[in-house]
Amino acid sequence: MQINALVDSHMIWVGSANGTTEDSNSVENGSLCRDWVYAMPQPNKQPMGTTLFRTSASDTALSMAQRIARKTDKAIFLSADVSPQHALVAEKLVVNTLRAL
User: Fold this and answer.
1) Residue 49, Cα to own-chain centre: how many angstroms?
2) Is the pTM value of this prediction over 0.85?
3) For the chain, what are the domain ranges?
4) Segment holding 39, helix H or strand E
5) Rounded Cα–Cα distance for residues 81 and 72 (Å)
6) CA distances (Å), 56 to each of 27, 51, 81, in order?
7) CATH match of 2-100 with 3.30.230.100
8) What are the Cα distances from residue 60, in Å, to 1, 55, 76?
9) Taking the chain, what is the end-to-end CA distance rounded to the nearest angstrom?
10) How many helices and strands, by DSSP H and E, does the chain display?
């Protein structure tokens, strides 16, 4: 996971990389921008979202970004390289990290 905190938004990459923490490079070993989405919170409504780049048939990244935007009240740029069964665990980790910032 990599989070870049911007002024009113967060740019997030979540995925897996081969190797150990010390010698892995997520850009080379993971799939950066596999599914790239943007979500923007709206008061009292479901956050709006759009796909910027899509390589899979799954909407996991878009729904994850919308939920994170709703929970943090910030615009979210999200690149997700996680399977649908691991998406909720990854989302919880991202939200907890953002709240700790």
Assistant:
1) 12
2) no
3) 2-100
4) strand 36-42
5) 21
6) 18, 11, 10
7) yes
8) 16, 12, 14
9) 14
10) 3, 5
pLDDT digits (tens, 9 = 90+) for 76-100: 999 988 888 888 999 999 999 999 9
Structural tokens at position 26 = 């997520």
| 8 A C-beta contact, residue 36 and residue 79 | yes
Residue of 64, 69, 70 lying closest to 84 (CA atoms): 64
What count of other Cβ atoms lies within 10 Å of the Cβ of residue 21? 6
Q: What angle do CA 6, 11, 14 make, to 5 degrees?
A: 150
Place of tokens 């008061």: 43
- The 10s digit of each residue's pLDDT in 2-19 is 999 999 999 999 987 655
Q: Collapsing DSSP states into helix, strand and coil, what is residue 19? A: coil
